[in-house]
Hints:
The complex is a heterodimer. Chain A is of the alpha/beta class. Chain A is 32% helix and 26% strand.
Amino acid sequence: MVAVQPLEVDVTPSAAAGAPGVELSAVGKRYESGGKVTEALRDVSLTLPDGEFVSLIGASGCGKSTLLRIVAGFERATAGRVMVSGQPVSRPGPDRGVVFQDYGLFPWLTVAANVAYGPRQRGATKAEVEATVDRFVRMVGLDHFRDRYPNELSGGMQQRVAIARVLANDPAVLLMDEPFGALDSLTRQTLQEELIKVWLELRPTVMLVTHSVEEAVFLSDRVVVMGGGPSHAVPGHVTKIVPIELAHPRDVTAPAFNDLKRELLDAIHHPAH
Amino acid sequence: MKKLLLALPVPLLILAAWSLAVSQRWLTLIPGPFEVLLALIDFTFGNLYDDAYSGTLLTHLIASAGRVLGGFALAALAAVPLGVLLARYEKLSRLIEPTLGVLRPIPVTAWVPLVLIVFGLGSHSAIILIFIGSFFPIFINTLLGVKRVPPRLIEAAQMLGTSEREMLYKVILPAAVPSVFAGMRIALGLAWVVVVVGETVGVPNGLGSVITEAREVSRTEIIITGMIFIGLAGLSTDKLLTLAVRRAVGRSPLLPS
């Protein structure tokens, strides 16, 4: 792999060296609407060392997306502490790049301009912006589509742009909310492989929410299984954490891979609590 | 070229049917296409009949287009900022929207007497009426365009380092452009309707006054000539607007080509 030049990004001015990528301590989330209180999450503690790839998996309503949105800063935890690179999270910021299932690209901007958005926001020089755009557009394989608009691209290509767009900010943490959920399975596989390549090259801390056990096992260092949710009368919480100690690239047909899948499926469907 | 060829059959068919209807005396009060063509040429260049209408196209066209563009521009200048403000500030919206809700259903034609009483006969009454007619389509579309910016785009901008203050210019306005533009197109079309209404009373020039006066002196060929030019002028200002917006926001895929 080619050596990566560090980008001069000033997003976490005083990020403590050696601090975990993400640190959740006893995080809870309650919603109140019309006097009715719903508890979506209770007592979630989870530490992602810098550079770790963690997937959150679990049945619908278990709060995994809410947890991701709390780390992103879109929602605030109502209990506990959320730290990213040693800093408490108070609002969304470019140190935490978010990749949405529905891409969230700016439809009035070209591919290159979408990727340039973040660097321009932080006031990078024209040359820096250009170099950053070149690098990441190429990294996701879209050099020939730089001047196209999002609506001219397939879903897989749009998601590549969305990934390049957050990578251009050199984020400490990559938050992905079912990023490949809307894509066909072949595109999905390709993007998973590309994501692993990018991750191995740049080593951001990754938190990925997924419905696919296979995707979680294929990508992650650890898979966090969540349970509970409104339909269970128990707030969402972590039920099991399964480390995946397989070397990349992973063979999805290997027996060890299948054993992990089975273990996870079992943990999702028959939580021991 | 292919587009042009495909656009031709329908007008030709209308011309043929019109010509036939006049020659067969099915229609007796309307002149034939050739007569109208001659009037149209005389109205445009003169030297054919040497009457009150000869060679006056430019005067009338400029008068009408000036009123249309003036009233429309005033409406856009007022409606776009107001739409953005009301979409953004709940309290202001509660203060102003109910009033606008009552004013909006009043047709422009119902405004004519009042405007004439207050502003008198003349060009500025026409401009005021165009302003009233153009205001609401632009206002409503701006309001909805701003309100309907997908929350996902706001989130995307936030996590890419956009502050709340920058959000309006970076995301909300660009995202609302297609809607604002759609409102402007409707408004500009309406402006041509209103200018004709406005010019039927008390103004000596403009295409609306031409067709009104021509009716009084039974010059049906001039009426049809005037109608044709109003159609062409409306089409031209629509194209002009598209071009202007396109220039302002760049080659965005959200606008019609």
